[in-house]
UniProtKB/TrEMBL annotation:
Residues that hold NAD(+) according to the record: G39, A40, S41, G42, G43, I44, G45, D65, N125, I148, S149, N150, M259
Boundaries of every Lactate/malate dehydrogenase N-terminal domain copy: 33-176
UniProt record similarity statement: Belongs to the LDH/MDH superfamily. MDH type 1 family.
Top EC category: oxidoreductase
Chain ranges of the Lactate/malate dehydrogenase C-terminal domain: 178-342
One GO CC term, this protein: mitochondrion
The name this protein goes by in its record: Malate dehydrogenase
Single GO molecular function: L-malate dehydrogenase (NAD+) activity
Domain of life: Eukaryota
Enzyme Commission (EC) number: 1.1.1.37
InterPro entries registered for this protein in UniProt: L-lactate/malate_DH, Lactate/malate_DH_C, Lactate/malate_DH_N, Lactate_DH/Glyco_Ohase_4_C, Malate_DH_AS, Malate_DH_type1, NAD(P)-bd_dom_sf
Length: 346
């Protein structure tokens, strides 16, 4: 009897595994998105690559960095998921790393340390983003680009100006990844109200640094209410959340794991949009005419060709209107800094 039961269980296990393999094949054959990560050996890049490798949305995962990338790729290639993974080292391999890519996510650059602002990273990271923008313009000009490298408020204009000079600029396909601000807002507000964070959605507009990060708590789903002092404290925490992590890590790094999670979420949304899924909405920092700032983050409906519709700001509370007004001059200054960098270095 026991032997018969073992046979039945064994057959059930085999049948289940076959079903899983069929499901994996059907999903991967239906979704054919090639994703590159530039900066794949770093603190954000490695966990981001791991998350991307697990997704059936990704069929080819190209990992680029200046060192150690083949080792990262070899490690990930042992995971039993469909994405074919390969690593590339150094600028001479950028052509192979980027050719044919549908999505490129860029976390490359140096992280913040205690006492540093995102803008302190400008000199190093600006050059890295410039060089990657030139490579993307040459080797994958039609790809959707997600820029994580800080300061995002300046690096997105840098990438766009390089693409413009190369004649490959498509404003609908260049995104500053501000998803971490949304993720943090969802987590902090769910914690404050005792809600399931998976069911909370807070649009975050503006930019990705300090006072330019504007959580629209008045538009929260589900609707939530806070006293004025609570609202101000929550907004300040969301705006300064990156520094909270930098301080907690005491010099050993910045927000790498949560940023990888947020970057993967944004990459998956791009993949879903490329595959024709409707109503894919994410906030991101893009070239925009919604405000006086020429780049601004708002909720966006994504499509096969990038931004399908900018959903704008919606109805703002008086408090949120004041936050937007305060953010505009700071955004304009950091946008100009990025554009000036390209013009001076060309």
């Amino acid at each position: 009897m026991l032997s018969t039961m073992n046979v039945i269980l064994s057959r059930a296990a085999v049948s289940s595994e076959v079903a899983n393999q069929v499901r994996r094949f059907s999903i991967s054959s239906r979704n054919n998105v090639k994703v590159a990560v530039c900066g794949a050996s770093g603190g954000i890049g490695q966990p981001l690559a791991l998350l991307l490798k697990q997704s059936p949305l990704v069929t080819k995962l190209s990992l680029y960095d200046i060192v150690h990338t083949p080792g990262v790729a070899a490690d990930l290639s042992h995971i039993d998921t469909p994405a074919v993974t390969k690593g590339y080292n150094g600028p001479e391999s950028l052509k192979d790393a980027l050719s044919g890519m549908d999505v490129v996510i860029i976390p490359a650059g140096v992280p913040r340390k205690p006492g540093m602002t995102r803008d302190d990273l400008f000199n190093t990271n600006a050059s890295i983003v410039r060089d990657l923008a030139e490579a993307c313009s040459k080797y994958c000009p039609k790809a959707m680009i997600g820029i994580i490298s800080n300061p995002v408020n300046s690096t997105v204009p840098i990438f766009s100006e390089i693409a413009k000079k190369a004649g490959t600029l498509d404003k609908k396909k260049i995104f500053g990844v501000t998803t971490l601000d949304v993720v943090r807002s969802n987590a902090f507000i769910a914690e404050a109200k005792g809600l399931d964070p998976r069911k909370v959605n807070i649009p975050v507009v503006g930019g990705h640094a300090g006072i330019t990060i504007i959580p629209l708590i008045s538009q929260a789903t589900p609707s939530v209410k806070f006293e004025k002092n609570e609202l101000e404290a929550l907004t300040a925490r969301i705006q300064d959340a990156g520094t909270e992590v930098v301080k907690a890590k005491a010099g050993s790094g910045s927000a790498t794991l949560s940023m990888a999670y947020a970057g993967a979420r944004f990459a998956f949304s791009l993949c879903r949009a490329i595959n024709g899924e409707s109503n894919v909405v994410e906030c991101a920092y893009i070239a925009s005419d919604v405000t006086e700032a020429t780049y601004f983050s708002t909720p966006l409906k994504l499509g096969k060709d990038g931004v399908a519709q900018n959903l704008g700001l919606g109805k703002l509370s008086a408090y949120e209107q004041d936050l937007v007004k305060a953010a505009i001059p700071e955004l304009q200054k950091t946008i100009k800094k990025g554009e000036d960098f390209v013009n001076k270095s060309s």
